Amino acid sequence: MTRDFLKNARDRYDVIVIGAGLAGMTAANTLARAGRSVLLLEQHFKLGGLATWFRRPGGHIFDVSLHGFPAGMIKSCRRYWSREIADRIVQLKNIRFDNPMFSLSTTFDRDDFTRLLTDRFGIAPDVVGRFFDAARDMNFYDDQATTTRELFDRFFPGREDVVRLLMEPITYANGSTLEDPALTYGIVFSNFMSKGVFTFQGGTDRLIAAMRDEMIRNGVDVRIRAEVERIHVRGRRVEAVTVDGRTIGAGAVVSNANLKSTILNLIGSEHFDSDFVDEARAVRLNNSSTQVYMALRPGQLIDESCGDLLFSSTAPAFRTEWLLSRDVTSRTYSFYYPKTRPERNRCLIVASTNANYADWADLPREDYARAKADLARSTLECVEKYVPEIRGKLDHVEVSTPVTFRRYTRHLDGASFGTKFEGLAVSRALPEQVAGLYHAGSVGIIMSGWLGAVNYGVIVSNDVDAFLMNDKS
Ligand SMILES: Cc1cc2nc3c(=O)[nH]c(=O)nc-3n(C[C@H](O)[C@H](O)[C@H](O)COP(=O)(O)OP(=O)(O)OC[C@H]3O[C@@H](n4cnc5c(N)ncnc54)[C@H](O)[C@@H]3O)c2cc1C
């Protein structure tokens, strides 16, 4: 017998949130705390979206996107979630780079980067100071035409090594490139530089369980395995969603699903101005990722001098297209020591690369399997440099590709970080097109990543609350 995952759901809510990623959950929680009745619908059997984990035999738990986020997450979680969640956020102190241009360790904050840029890279202190100030002072209303490359050229002309130090981690953190607006770089880079890189102690499973408990305490009606098929609009006003064949009414709808599929698939272009549809169609998606997950046998430990995060590359210089290529030269390793989940005493490694969906999507089944096996093999060869004889220590190895991310989150092209910059304006303009319709989720580079998604969820929930307060219909 199939289970009814919508059993006892009401016929109408103040707000329906589609998708339980960090932005969707934060919006749902904030609105419930404000006294709104909220239904949260998630198509997967787990909450969290890309903030996810999976278990494998032998007691291994792999985190998919817990590699690092800025300190701002502590404040956002304390305010909009709970003190218990905020108190588990701890710093990763050993960030490493290893490439043909330089090998170094850093705490990845302004003081340490100033030291590195002046002492090691020989940049004049006042240039470094002015660069940090320029990056920090960027905001959404600034000049959006200057690219990140132009910003670097202004401060560090001809210094490919400096560009690599400053850019490579941010490309991993949000998929941005040298051609994207400098403010997308400046905001995210400065967020990290304020205090360094942070993680959630206890793992993603513990975080999401705490968020679920908090939502339930606040009265959010949380439903999994509930895929929304349609958002209904009548006369330019949102009125309901159809999920699992059932139509449920709502005063407002927040979609945490991919921006383009929300507009073009869940709603349909006929409900929007044609200019807006053209704009939405033109929004570029961000890149996707591959990952190789490696679990060491119980009792096999890795020396913590390997670092917490390691940006490793054999490429002679930094080029975005090289980072995306299937001929992988650059990998970011997350080393998870027993301190991540102290009760388990396990070491795991996750190697991530940025990747193009198109390079993986159309491979015939056998080629796809072979490409995954090749990626696992070449990754193990590279890890040997940092963890000698790794193969003899492993219990489990597994690979995910852009196709995997597409499958589990429904993101078009398996986008890891939502959309490029232009997606933010389209996301923000949705309620002007259809009253009561909102989007909260990774867009515009700035609003992606764990912190960006949580903060966007808060911003949108405030908009929704104000809309419902003033709504006379
Ligand atoms: C490999 C990888 C590594 C990353 N590493 C980091 C990192 O170290 N630090 C960091 O800050 N960020 C990282 N990120 C990015 C970060 O995880 C995401 O930006 C963030 O989690 C996205 O949250 P979101 O709220 O936008 O939505 P998502 O997580 O994309 O969630 C959207 C949710 O909507 C659901 N959904 C979609 N369609 C429907 C539907 N029709 N009905 C019901 N539900 C639906 C999906 O199932 C999903 O649960 C990484 C991402 C990837 C892929």
Task: Give a written overview of the molecule.
The chain is α/β, with parallel strands linked by helices. Among the domains are: 12-51 and 206-284 and 417-470, FAD/NAD(P)-binding domain; 92-197, no CATH class. The protein contains 17 helices and 18 strands. It has helices spanning 22-33, 72-80, 83-87, 110-120, 125-136, 148-155, 160-174, 182-195, 204-217, 259-267, 274-282, 320-324, 358-361, 365-383, 402-409, 422-433, 449-470; strands at residues 12-18, 38-41, 53-56, 60-63, 89-92, 95-98, 103-106, 197-200, 221-223, 228-234, 237-243, 246-255, 288-296, 309-313, 330-336, 348-355, 394-400, 437-439. The strands form four sheets. Strands 1, 2, 9, 10, 11, 12 and 18 form a seven-stranded mixed sheet that branches. A seven-stranded mixed sheet has the order 7-6-14-15-16-13-17, sandwiched between helices. A hairpin with a 2-residue loop joins β11 (237-243) and β12. α1 runs parallel beside α9. The chain starts with 11 loop residues before the first strand and ends with a helix.
